[in-house]
Amino acid sequence: MGNRITSLLVVALLGLLLFTPAWADLLYDNGAINGTIGGWPISSPNKVTDSFSLTSASNLSGAQIGLWVYPTDYPSTVDWAIGTVGYASDVSSGTASLASSTLTNVSHGTTPGGFLLFESSFPVTGGVPAGTFWLTITGGEAAKFPGPYIFWDINYGPSVGFNNTGGAGSESFQIFGTSTAVPEPSTLLLLGPGLAGLWVWGRKKFKCI
Q: Rounded to whole angstroms, how far apart are CA atoms 91 and 69?
């Protein structure tokens, strides 16, 4: 009986090792919101696309960007796309509604021109391998002044950025998700002795009962 319980315990631990859900993480950070350089317009037909690189296969879950709007206004919606090349949506795409719970006002009239600056979060989806991808933002709308009055904050981060007319510097954004990397063989080797020790401990314990 004791051996059976111990064996089941070892099998369960191995199952947890191999199938435990991966952790949520910040997969890519293009730098903090700047708030002083300016912003590129993202209302249709304007589009801005920025590259980002992932070091391991991942399931994407969210993005965060900095958005400029006119005083007293706030961001309402943006269209987003993830692609393997700029402006593409071959991985995933959608329209994000920026509810008040997803917005943080990080500047009260201190940006050039008195614009308000918001940190805007929204969900994105898509499973991707390691490599370089592109986040494209367009269709931006502000709540009170619809039209060409919403801008993606420029911070000159490490990504490559483009807009409709050419280079766009680089914009402030972060990509979040879940790493799906398989544990390295060295990690499994280190866990092996630990599992063996647990098996011996369990066997001795049940013999004493």
A: 29
In degrees and rounded to multiples of 5, residue 122 shows phi and psi of -160, 155
Q: What is the 3-state secondary structure (H, E, C) of 101-156?
A: HHEEEEECCCCHHHCEEEEEEEECCCEECCEEEEEEEEEEEECCCCCCCEEEEECC
What are the sequence ranges of the domains in the chain? 1-22+184-209, 25-175
Rg of the chain taking only CA atoms, in angstroms: 24
Close Cβ partners of 30 (under 8 Å, ≥ 6 residues apart): 50, 52, 155, 157, 158, 159, 170, 171, 172, 173, 174
Max CA pair span of the chain: 78
Instruction: Give the CATH number of domain 25-175.
Output: 2.60.120
Predicted TM-score (pTM) of this structure: 0.77
33-71 pLDDT, tens digit per residue, is 999 999 999 999 999 999 999 999 999 999 999 999 998
Q: Note the pLDDT of residue 203.
A: 54
Assigned token pair, 192: 């092996």
